[in-house]
Amino acid sequence: MFEAELILKTTPPRLPRAALERPRFVELWQQVNERAVLAVVAPAGFGKTTLMLQWRRLWLERGSYVAWATLDAQDEPARFARCLLHAMRSATGRAAFEPLAALCASQPDREMEAMTAMLAEVSSIGVETVLMLDDTERLPGSSLHLL
Questions:
Q1: Are 46 and 111 in contact (CB under 8 A)?
Q2: Given pLDDT bands bounded at 50, 70 and 90, which one contains residue 25?
Q3: What secondary structure letter does DSSP report for 36?
């Protein structure tokens, strides 16, 4: 995967100006924002990405690091791991994620080791860190074990 492709996959889309702020979803975010894992499930076109972008803004306003990755059917395990590592590098500015991404690129069978090291690095940051995965339904089955 080329660097430009990684940049595009880890750059969140722009929140549409016409997106309505829904107080009910802000209230829901206030109830669930400290949970370890959240899943937004709805059919295509129901506004999952818009909701995630609005929640992303709330986390950023709170001072959290927020990493973003838009997934697709080509995200086999090594590519998926590199994408997550690049997202974390972009969100936090920490260079420690770069050697882990290089490990995934050069030795594709070591993505679980890289993901474990990524979690250890996140735990040492000391700032609330959120990883948002969009279009997870497109992720190939072979990559699901990394979640």
A1: no
A2: confident
A3: S
